[in-house]
Specification:
- The chain folds into 5 domains: about 170 residues, no CATH class; about 90 residues, Transcription Regulator spoIIAA (2-Layer Sandwich), CATH 3.30.750; about 60 residues, Oligo-1,6-glucosidase, domain 2; about 210 residues, Glycosidases (TIM Barrel, Alpha-Beta Barrel), CATH 3.20.20.80; about 80 residues, Golgi alpha-mannosidase II (Immunoglobulin-like, Sandwich), CATH 2.60.40.1180.
- Helix 4 packs parallel to helix 13.
- With about 675 residues, the protein is of the alpha/beta class.
- A hairpin with a 7-residue loop joins strand 18 and strand 19.
- Bound molecules: alpha-D-glucopyranose (GLC) (2 copies).
- GO terms for molecular function: amylosucrase activity; isomerase activity.
């Protein structure tokens, strides 16, 4: 296929007959009409713009149409794909026309620096809006605090209007074009994004695109019997089909929302509900659903959202006989949405929330011919699980094996590296990886649950078990970083030595995620050592869901502690801010430079290498509470002498030829300039 005109090449391997200077300058309308949007409709939409602006739109369409077309062809029959493509280009034209001037300028800047989000200066932070600042205006007041930490990317949990009562933390959206009244208005959201742009912080918002609230107007219309809107959902009159699907479907909330279908009397049917019964899965096989979401994406981009988190993307496409996760179509959906965004609002990125098995992960950046064309960002949940595993076992063998086995991400994309988020932690540990280092996959996952629930002898972790599944033996874990890493218990015991060790452990864990490249994201409160919220059950809507234990409110007293010398919050906050500063000065930590792990002579130390034209970065992480030696003479791939870029000091080699790492010490070693 010719990438320029989208036509098959004839004959095979010959040059495309249509690539001529004349062809390149041809107006859109002269191209094959399977590829070309309806020129006159687009012209009408853009009529009020200057010739330069109109021309820029046309250039972008030419650049991204092949990606859009290829993705839609995978999703829908030819005729509906072509019709949808036309509607999407028209929607993109409207969004482009209406895009505010400052965002248009941001598009230009980002087009000139398309790797902006891969820069080592990126630092993420994630929080619930109400828990960070009360409401959107309150979040604005927190921006100086975030800048002090070095934050350049802020993920606010859902702020769009949710259903009343339990809304799964806002993940049951009743209106995508309105803001939750308790948090403010759409204007407040626009004001916040403008203030954030001025502060150099990109806003990340969720797009919940697997389901809507039962109260969303599509669901209401479906309940009223409107056939068009019934077609937006997966509805079955009896249990025959649901039973077939459920033979191979895992349960996400086996505890409080068992099964994947809910009977709704008003629908007179079983509706697909992967999560809670009030969250109705939408039917992405319906092109109208695609169009609705693409239009919402464009709207969010024009409000100033810079990264759109594709919530639960793994679940979007259903296929009988499978677990209905990670189907190839979900990657095509991301590719098509991305192409639409690149045309209308290229400053905006997509982030896949796919908390899936290690082998399924990298596909979210695009697979095969779509390599690098799906989401720009994805969560590195393998790294997350491996960090906790190393801290529990004081051993790096499994992490080296699992991280080393992952295909490298496309160089134009970036991982989100994190220790925890607002959700529970699931042990994404592959049986084959575990087997390769002499562990049983199930037994190791079970050990990790025991360990972080504080049930394993010697563990001081204070996690809570989330959604235990007796059928599979699966036990996920809730808890803040301080609770899981033993800080909460050490503080409760008033044990200074244990507090010191826990602080080192937390800083080490952050040094690993900050040293991986990509965007490290700190979860609200972890920078201050926030424990689990003892009152998490007080709100009856949350009482059954212990993820709320690690979603406690920010406390201004705790924030003030960062100024108190020697306080836990002081050590953590300044330790992390210092790490972020060191990171931003290291070109090796640009996300395009892959991180490599290799087995070393000491299993208590993880070595991560980043090879870069400006010199190698060698990272060493002691994952134990003992001093550990690293034999430099025999096993150091970088230049000696070296400087530790984290602490800013030259490293001292012992008389025994070893570099000795303190308990939980992290070293980022570079050659001296
Ligand atoms: C996502 C969210 C999670 C939510 C689920 C359903 O995975 O992170 O909090 O429960 O989607 O929307
Ligand atoms: C999302 C995540 C999954 C998590 C669930 C509930 O679907 O992918 O890991 O367990 O939400 O929190």
């Amino acid at each position: 296929m010719c990438w320029w005109c989208g036509r098959p090449r004839r004959p095979a391997n010959s040059k495309c007959q249509r690539i001529t200077p004349r062809h390149r300058r041809a107006p859109i309308s002269s191209l094959d009409n399977r590829v070309a949007p309806d020129r006159s409709a687009v012209d009408d939409i853009l009529a009020g713009l200057s010739p330069d602006r109109r021309d820029l739109f046309e250039l972008r369409v030419r650049r991204w149409l092949p990606d859009l077309r290829a993705a839609l062809a995978l999703l829908y029959p030819a005729e509906s794909a072509a019709a949808l493509q036309r509607r999407l280009i028209e929607a993109a034209a409207r969004a482009y026309r209406d895009r505010p001037a400052d965002l248009h300028r941001l598009d230009q800047a980002r087009t000139l620096a398309p790797d902006w989000f891969q820069e080592p200066a990126m630092l993420g932070y994630a929080a619930y809006c109400d828990r960070l600042g009360g409401d959107l205006r309150g979040v604005r007041a927190q921006l100086p605090y975030l800048s002090e930490l070095g934050v350049t990317y802020l993920h606010l949990m859902p702020v769009l209007r949710a259903r009343d009562g339990d809304s799964d933390g806002g993940y049951a959206v009743a209106d995508y074009r309105d803001v939750e009244p308790a948090l403010g208005t759409v204007q407040d959201l626009r004001d916040l994004t403008a203030a954030m742009r001025a502060a150099g912080i990109s806003l990340v918002l969720d797009l919940v695109l697997n389901h809507v609230a039962r109260e969303h107007h599509w669901a209401r219309a479906a309940r009223d019997g409107d056939q068009t809107y019934r077609g937006y959902f997966h509805i079955h009159p009896d249990r025959a089909e649901p039973d077939e699907y459920e033979k191979t479907l895992p349960e996400v909330f086996p505890d409080f929302a068992p099964g994947s279908f809910s009977w709704d009397p008003e629908l007179s049917g079983w509706v697909w509900t992967t999560f809670n019964s009030f969250q109705w899965d939408v039917n992405w096989a319906n092109p109208d659903v695609f169009f609705e979401y693409a239009d919402i994406v464009l709207w969010l981009a024009n409000v100033g959202v810079e990264v759109i988190r594709l919530d639960a993307i793994a679940f979007l496409w259903k296929r009988k006989g499978t677990n209905c996760q990670n189907q190839p179509e979900v990657h095509a959906i991301a590719q098509a949405l991305r192409a639409v965004l690149r045309i209308a609002a290229p400053a905006t990125l997509l982030k896949a929330e796919a908390i899936v098995a290690p082998r399924e992960l990298v596909q979210y950046f695009g697979r095969g011919r779509s390599h690098g064309k799906a989401s720009d960002l994805a969560y590195h949940n393998t790294l997350m699980a491996q960090v906790w595993s190393m801290l529990a076992t004081r051993d790096t063998a499994l992490a080296v094996r699992a991280l080393g086995a992952l295909p490298t991400a496309p160089t134009t994309t970036s991982w989100i590296c994190y220790l925890r988020c607002h959700d529970d932690i699931g042990w994404a540990i592959d049986d084959a990886d575990a087997g390769a280092v002499g562990l049983g996959g199930f037994a190791h996952r079970s050990f990790l649950s025991d360990y972080y629930l504080g049930e394993f002898p010697g563990s001081t972790a204070r996690g809570l078990v989330f959604q235990p599944n007796p059928a599979t033996g699966d036990r996920r874990v809730s808890g803040t970083t301080a609770a899981l890493a033993g800080l909460e218990a050490a503080e409760a015991a008033g044990d200074p030595a244990a507090i010191d060790i826990a602080l080192r452990r937390i800083l080490l864990a952050h040094a690993i995620i900050m040293g991986w490249g990509g965007i490290p994201v700190i979860w609200m409160g972890d920078e201050l050592g926030m424990p689990n919220d003892p009152n998490w059950q007080a709100d009856p809507a949350h009482a059954a869901d212990n993820r709320w234990a690690h979603r406690g409110p920010m406390s201004s007293e705790l924030q003030a502690q960062r100024f108190v010398d020697g306080a836990v919050a002081h050590r953590l906050f300044h330790g992390l801010a210092q790490m972020a500063r060191a990171r931003s000065a290291l070109p090796q930590l640009h996300a395009a430079t892959p991180a490599a792990v290799a087995p070393g002579p000491n299993p208590g130390i993880l070595m991560v290498l980043r090879d870069h034209p400006q010199g190698e970065l060698v990272e060493l992480f002691n994952v134990t509470e003992q001093w550990q030696p690293w034999p430099v003479r025999s096993h150091y791939p970088g230049a000696v002498p070296a400087i530790d870029a984290l602490g800013g000091n030259p490293v001292q080699i012992g008389d025994d030829g070893c570099l000795w790492l303190e308990p939980y010490q992290a070293l980022w070693l570079v050659a001296p300039c």
